Amino acid sequence: MRIGVDLGGTKIEAIALDPRGASMARRRVPAPRDDYGATLGAITGLVAAIESETGRRGSVGVGTPGALSPFTGRLRNSNSVWLNGRAIDRDLAQLLARPVRIANDADCFALSEATDGAGRGSRCVFGVILGTGCGGGVVVDGRLLAGPNAIAGEWGHNPLPWPAAHEHPGPDCYCGKQGCIETFVSGPGLAADHCRHTGTRQEPPAILAAAQAGDRDAEASLRRHVGRLARALASVINVLDPDAIVLGGGLSNLPHLYDDLPDLVRPWLICDGMATRILPPVHGDSSGVRGAAWLWDGEPAT
């Protein structure tokens, strides 16, 4: 039995999967804030509850915001800042009396969709999170690609490719740079762009609804967004050439993306066609926790 834990900012969710990937048990609790000890307690409590319910002991994988640094062995770049600088894998291993595998939540999404989701059967899958941020993960031959710096798939903090004059230098990013892909194509990036052009602050679902009702400003905001996303994905395809790109996060629910992106990506590719498929997720919001469980399906690639 594989147990996966999705460590989110507002909730912590755990799932148990049988060898075929079927759910055996599932639980969630509110995520403690600003309290590392309480966070560890919530995770260990969920694992204990899952094992009590199933009557079985399982391997444990955890998807986290941020990632473990290969240089310090401690978590970095988490927006749940009380986790940063902590050796969360070692601490949980001690509490649970077993090894624990940790991966970035976007990596877990990619692994889930590559294993038994939209990218199943593809040799190379690029999983994308388009939500509050803009993360990504790479799975090759069924194995998560971590990389020696533990940043494989972190496309969101590259600059927006082929920027127009009005897109340069671009919005400020929390990472300290300007014009990162994330500042354009994430949910907040779309909302901020719409506000800059209209003076009205609206969240992406409201922008979509307005566009569907014929609002030309909203339509223009969505066109700018999908055009920028196309350029950003083209740069990934030019480097990685994945078989499939699976979109996740809140913006993956924008239906026009799957119709519009192939034609918009193609002109930016250094080839004479486009075989890469751009797909919606099969497991949706469950991909993160399922991917955490699948961290124990073989050794991660490096």
Describe this entry's structure for a reader:
This protein has about 300 residues and is an alpha/beta fold. It has 2 domains: about 1-110 and about 285-295, Nucleotidyltransferase, domain 5, CATH 3.30.420.40; about 120-280, Nucleotidyltransferase, domain 5. It has 9 helices and 12 strands. The chain has helices at about 35-55, 90-95, 105-115, 180-185, 185-200, 205-210, 215-240, 255-265, 285-295, and strands spanning about 1-5, 10-15, 25-30, 60-65, 65-70, 75, 100-105, 125-130, 135-140, 145, 245-250, 275-280. The strands form 3 sheets. It has a 5-stranded mixed β-sheet. A 5-stranded mixed β-sheet has the order 10-9-8-11-12, sandwiched between helices. Helix 5 crosses helix 7 (about 215-240) and helix 6 (about 205-210) crosses helix 7 (about 215-240). The longest helix is centred in the C-terminal third of the chain and has 25 residues, at about 215-240. The protein is globular, with a radius of gyration of 19 Å. The protein starts with a strand and ends in an 8-residue tail after the last helix. The model has no long low-confidence stretch (mean pLDDT about 95).
